[in-house]
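User: My instructor asked us to take a sequence, write out its structure as tokens, and then describe one feature of it. I'm not sure where to start. Here is the sequence I was given:
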Amino acid sequence: MKDEIKLFRHILSSIDLSDVEELKNIKISDNELQRRAADAEIFYMSHFEKVLKLYIQKQLEFIANEATDIEKLSFGRGTINGLILINQWFEERIKESRSRFDEQEEEETGEIKPV
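Assistant: Let's start with the prediction itself. The structure tokens for your sequence are:
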């Protein structure tokens, strides 16, 4: 599915997260990740994700009511795509941190968590 989304974005002249090489260079040490991951996930899930989804919904409604030509429609869709990219980046970081901690816990306890 990721490849299809990337293809659709490229067809519509948009970047995909995989196109931004600098994002791959943002590294967080394991110690820093441990200290901040739980708080960041709680904040993201309880606040930031809701705000992004609300903005996306309101932008969709605004496009439906206000876009009178293709330029306005395209600009509105670009706004939505940007919000979705930000949301996707944070979701991937959360999954990555969960995976790293699950692996670390398995090594320490010998218990394998169900997927």
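For the description part of your assignment, you could build on this observation: The radius of gyration is 18 Å. Try explaining in your own words what that tells you about the chain.
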